[in-house]
Amino acid sequence: MNGQDIRGQADALAERYPDLRDRVDPSRVERLLGEAAKDAVHRDDFGSSAEGGRGQSYVAAQRSTHTRAHGINQLARLFTERSRAQSDVVLDLLGGDGLVARVLESTGTTAPRVITCDASPFMVEAAWAQGIPALLQRAESLLFHTGSVGGVLLAYGTHHIPEADRQRVADEAFRVIEPGGVFVLHDFLAGSPVDTWFTKVVDVYAATGHDHPHFQLEETESLLTSAGFTDVELLSLDDPFVVKGPTREQAELELGRYLVDMYGLVALVDEYGPEDAARRAFELACDIFQYERPEPARSAVCAEPDTVGDQWTVTMPREALVAVGRRPPRDVAA
Q: pLDDT tens-digit profile of 192-251?
């Protein structure tokens, strides 16, 4: 599927999910196509390497569906436990190549029905190539009718949304969610180890840099309440990277390789070479990802032998900030 072919994507989505045909707004599709024809240029950090993006290495990292499965499964449960909407359709606005959908599919999860969306044509095309239907759309200008879906997920890249656009994104989420439906916003706090990692490592070693401010508690809550969501909760979510290997050293190197691919640390590879770059990425992660927790084993990067089988598991802790809000159970004008 061509990543730019929005009409084709919408038609193909409706073939798999017939009820989606009436949820996508044709007038909004035509409007977006008109904007594209006017050459509205958006920087695409997740495009191909030929376009100056890190999309190819990111897709390579996402071949592993278990590395981030713990956090993704928790996010899915927030919808099933809190939503009062009739629809079980959830739009994954920053869905990339469909990792969330693939993780849930691999565990046999049938609800919610996650529809992968992304603003990067490269990511949308990569999702289709892996059998995950996807739709090209921007988070601040959704293609769905008002009150047409059960929920919206904004996760794994929310800080890439410019601060000036964040309220508009929350407002759009509110618009498309039906009464009783849920909006889940996921990111990492400013000043957290994840923020430090992006500042000291990704911004230095990735070809795209990483000048994207992370979220403050007050900002996050305000985005949801200002959009009209009620029952707003701020949660801390355990969202680690988990990798395995036949030995401790190989598992540690596997985490390093994952980090190099995930964040496109091409300058680290240029400086150290592929193998030593993985080792250096692992060392940097050990230095940065440290939390104050009552369980010391989960407060820093740790390696443990599996109780069954000849495998080692390496876990890199990450604490995510999650805001959950519900659209009030009443009709809201378009």
A: 999 999 999 999 999 888 889 999 999 999 999 999 999 999 999 999 999 999 999 999
CA angle (135, 138, 139) in 5-degree steps: 105
pTM given for the model: 0.92
Three-class secondary structure of residue 135 per DSSP: strand
Q: How is residue 190 written in tokens?
A: 């400013």
Which phi and psi (to 5°) does residue 180 adopt? 90, -10
Pairing of strands 177-187, 230-238: unpaired
CA distance 61 to 285: 16
Domains plus CATH for the chain? 6-38+63-188+211-238 (3.40.50.150), 241-317 (no CATH)
Long-range contacts, stretch 106-110, CB < 8 angstroms, 24+ apart:
106/65, 106/69, 107/69, 107/73, 109/73, 109/76
Query: Could you give the 3-state DSSP secondary structure of residue 268?
Result: helix
